[in-house]
Every structure is written in C-alpha cells, then in structure tokens.
Amino acid sequence: MAAEPEIFELSNGRITAKIASWGATITSLLVPDAQGDLADVVLGFDTLEPYLKGMAPYFGCIVGRVANRIKNGKFGLDGVEYSLPINNGPNSLHGGLKGFDKVVWDVVERKDGECPSITFQYDSKDGEEGYPGDVTVRSTYSLPEATTLRLDMEAIPANKATPISLAQHTYWNLAGHNSGNTLDHLIQIWGKHITPVDENTIPTGEIMPVQDTPFDFTTEHKIGARINDVPGGYDHNYVLDSGDEKNGLKHAAKLKETSSSRMLDLWTDAPGMQFYTANYVDGITGKDRAVYGKHAGVCLETQGFPNAINQPNFPSVVVQPGAKYKHTMLFEFSA
Which H or E element spans position 298? Predict the structure, then answer.
C-alpha cells in the first residue's frame, strides 16, 4: 500500500520545486526574475487537504491513464468495447472520476547532488476507471540545469494493450501565482495546426491550419489579444509540427511575462499540446489566500491528441503489453 501522501522538495539553489506524492503534483515552483527575486509561478494550495478533497481543477498534477477527453467515454480495442466514467459533459476526461491525479504515488527513488531528482511510481490495475490491463507508471522530476525542470514519464502495460497518454497539468503564471490573470503574458506556439472541436470539445478529426485565425501563435502574441474571438477561451490541442529539435525534444512553446521578464521555454517529444487558459477557474482560494479567477493561469499540456483512441487519423495512443510509453517535458526558465 502507498504511504500517506506528502510533499517533497527539490532544489538546486536557483529554483525550488515542491512536489506531492498525491497525483505527482507540482504544488509550488520558485523561479527567479531578472533581479534574482523569487516568485512561485504555479497555481495551487498551501497544504494537501484541498487536493485530497477534490478542490483542485487539476492544479499541477499528472493526469491519466488518458489525458484529455474521450468521446462519450467509449472506445473499442482488440474486439472489446470499453466504457469509462463520464465526468465532463458527455465525455470521460483525464482518466475518469479517480484518475492518476487522485491517487497516492510511491516514491521509488530520490537523488541529491548536481541533478537532484525524485521518481514516483503508480501501479494502475486492470479495469481501473474502465481501462484494460495492469500498467506500471513512473514519473521522474529532476533539475538538470540551474533554472530547468525536467519531467520524464513512462508507462509499461503488463498484460493487455491499452491507450496511454499522460499530461502534466500545471497552471502557470510567470508573474507569480497571486498576480491576477495571464492575459498579458506573451506566447509563441510551434504549431501550425490545431485539432478543431465540436460543441462538446471533442476533436472533429480535422487538422486545421491556424493561419489567419485567432489560434495563430506561430509568432508571439498576447494571450488576451484575440481570446474574445474564441468562444469560451482557448482550450485546444495544437499539432506540434514546426519547432526546432534539441536532444530529441521539439520546441513546443515560449511563454513570457514582461513585468518580471520571466520566460518559460517548453520542449517535448509529444505530438500535441493542449493550450488552456483556465476558462473554468472561478474564485478558488489558493496559496497565501490568493483568489484565482478566470484566466489566472495558463496550461501547456503536452499530450497525445484528444480522443485519439477513436480517431484513426490521429497518432495512436495504444501501447502494447511489454512496450514502453515515454513522454518527456523540459521547462527552461530564464529572465
């Protein structure tokens, strides 16, 4: 049995992360600005209790077994039809009612020294939240450079093929978690296409060019500049098809906040990224009694495409028994 959930600290003297074993959740991340002043740049809570009570709209956690939405909570695989819990309109979202964000992960390795790291493991059982087969999941957070956080996720199905698509669901505010909305943040996304959605936020299957639309962030724009042209705000999957590569990872996005000069460069090996502007956050009391309103953070969730299990033209998220799912994210901070 997993131990009681607790919060662990990773620090290299420049940046300090607090990560909970509940959901392998980043609860705090202190990052310097141009003057060296630290701010906590992630939304969250001071203690574990609100997370355990389900008050977090996926703040900082790892979601799975399948991130994002599965249409009508149904899919077929190897001749078997599977039904999942419905928890988002007519769909199954982020692994169901008790996804990987709402369980205790075991700490299986900790390293200090020049590249401090912590590895969490969760053993997901056959039939859990409706998904087939046993799966062992590992997530390692590390600080490989002075102002870089790295996340390596992997999962191995033991005995049945299963869809697997994990995502890290941190809400970023580079001015500091308690500094209001993120509409003045600048963002560039290395994606020339999105997967447009229907009225239930399920991709239609189309791969749509972003050129001449409010979704075009191939050059830098303020998040809020055209958000009112997008009903409800941004909550869309970008096809990561145009970024430079570095050490096997693609440049996914660059987020900038001008008052602090903080920047976040995100690199990944995932095919897509959900750009979500916290449209449904509404008056949640978080750390230091800060009240998080609409657009208080921005999520950059690298992922397999939403509902890929039901869309043959999307990159497959099915992993065979004994094969290994791998997903890396590199968060490079600068100022």
Answer: strand 298-303
CA dist 332 to 15, 57, 124, 150, 267, Å? 11, 25, 31, 8, 8
Can 301 be counted among the known catalytic residues?
yes
8-64 per-position pLDDT tens digit: 999 999 999 999 999 999 999 999 999 999 999 999 999 999 999 999 999 999 999
Among candidate residues 128, 162, 116, 92, the one with its CA nearest the CA of residue 323: 162
pLDDT in tens, 149-160: 999 999 999 999
75 DSSP assignment: E
State the burial class of residue 231 (Cβ atoms within 10 Å of its Cβ: 0-12, 13-18, 19+): exposed
- Strand arrangement of the beta sheet that strand 272-276 belongs to: 171-172, 298-303, 272-276, 235-239, 193-194, 208-209
Best CA proximity match to 152, nearest among 194, 189, 99, 115: 115
Instruction: Give the C-alpha separation, 62 to 118, whole Å.
Output: 14
Which entry of 94, 301, 327, 332 is annotated as an active-site residue? 301
Q: What is the pLDDT of residues 163-197, one digit of tens each?
A: 999 999 999 999 999 999 999 999 999 999 999 99
Q: Could you give the CA distance from residue 314 to residue 316 in angstroms, rounded to a whole number?
A: 6
Q: Cα dist. 128→97, 220, 311 in Å? A: 10, 42, 23
Contact 7, 309 (CB under 8 A): no
- pTM of the full structure: 0.98
26-36 as b/e: b if 16+ CB within 10 A: bbbbbbbbeee
Host H or E run for residue 30: strand 25-32
Residue whose C-alpha is closest to residue 236's, from 185, 298, 153: 298
Among 169, 236, 251, 327, the one annotated catalytic: 169
Smallest Cα–Cα separation from 187: which of 268, 277, 293, 306? 277
Distance CA 59, CA 240 (A): 23
Active site residue 295: no
